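Technical annex, item 7. During the second reporting period the consortium partners agreed on a shared format for inverse folding records so that results from different sites could be compared directly. Each record opens with the tokenized structure and is followed by the designed sequence. A conforming record, contributed by the partner at site C, is shown below for reference.
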């Protein structure tokens, strides 16, 4: 009798969760629910859906339940979700921001730009629940609402014009940020990506070319101007890392750490470690880093030998 009651309880729970799943599908138009999702009557709906996928993968999900789940739109693999999150994180790490051009496709063919736009449209329709459905993107600092694009364009052009007046060229280093916080180097890099992919409007191409834009800028490594700018940038970033470390009892900044000005000092230090491992960091820069903290080349949490 107790076994029968136990089976009945499990069956009732399964039916209850299935009803919650149907309700979710009716509200959102899909059942691609992250494992962490919790809400109302389906308090652990995300975990329950994950369990059904695990059972299906193991071949132990009853055929009638599998058919019912497929009838409401269940997808047994969420590889696109995983791929999208991973691709966005990689883009963000490489570019230093998450403003993916809408035509951007990864090297392995994933349409990341389209995927990101879909997330923003989802947020525009239901901000509260979209944030709850995508905790991974929240953790990555995903920007759900991009500011007015025309205003952003005008601000970028104005900053680039001023840079040209101050420096005599448009060879903006990737790291360059204006006094008011505009990441001009990254803005220029994004425009070059759009130009190469044909996504930049002809009028805007003409506007930048009137300023003297060079679309495929490649300064040689031994160019004196490039070396001076890189040396200045290195010194500035090292001072920022030192200041942060002093304020935090000598700790090394982890990957996602930014300083009080929002500068990604954690990513910068990771880059220096990578260059050092590849024997591409100059002796002078290694000496400066060692003079600050000889443990700089060891990631936080690791132990040096």
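Designed sequence (site C submission):
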């Amino acid at each position: 009798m107790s076994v029968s009651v136990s089976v009945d309880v499990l069956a009732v729970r399964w039916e209850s969760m299935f009803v919650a799943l149907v309700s979710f599908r009716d509200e959102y138009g899909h059942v691609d629910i992250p494992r962490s999702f919790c809400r109302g009557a389906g308090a652990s709906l995300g975990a329950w859906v994950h369990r059904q996928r695990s059972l299906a993968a193991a071949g132990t999900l009853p055929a009638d339940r599998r058919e019912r789940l497929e009838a409401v739109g269940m997808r047994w693999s969420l590889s696109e979700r995983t791929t999208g999150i991973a691709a966005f994180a990689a883009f963000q790490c490489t570019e230093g921001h998450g403003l993916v051009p809408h035509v951007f496709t990864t090297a392995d063919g994933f349409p990341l730009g389209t995927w990101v736009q879909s997330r923003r449209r989802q947020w525009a329709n239901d901000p509260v629940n979209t944030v709850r459905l995508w905790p991974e993107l929240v953790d990555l600092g995903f920007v759900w609402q991009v500011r007015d694009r025309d205003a952003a364009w005008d601000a970028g052009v104005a900053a680039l014009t001023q840079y040209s007046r101050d420096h005599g060229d448009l060879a903006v280093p990737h790291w360059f940020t204006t006094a008011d916080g505009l990441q001009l180097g990254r803005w220029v890099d994004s425009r070059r990506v759009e130009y190469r992919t044909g996504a930049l409007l002809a009028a805007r191409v003409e506007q930048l070319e009137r300023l003297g834009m060079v679309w495929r800028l490649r300064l040689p490594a031994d160019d004196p101007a490039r070396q001076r700018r890189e040396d200045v940038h290195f010194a500035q970033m090292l001072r920022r890392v030192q200041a942060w470390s002093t304020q935090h009892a000598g700790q090394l900044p982890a990957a996602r750490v930014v300083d009080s000005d929002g500068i990604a000092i954690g990513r910068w230090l990771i880059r220096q470690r990578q260059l050092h491992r590849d024997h591409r960091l100059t002796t002078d820069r290694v000496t400066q880093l060692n003079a600050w903290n000889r443990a700089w080349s060891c990631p936080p949490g690791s132990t040096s030998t």
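DSSP finds 13 helices and no strands in the chain. The chain has a mean pLDDT of 80. All partners now use this format for quarterly exchanges.
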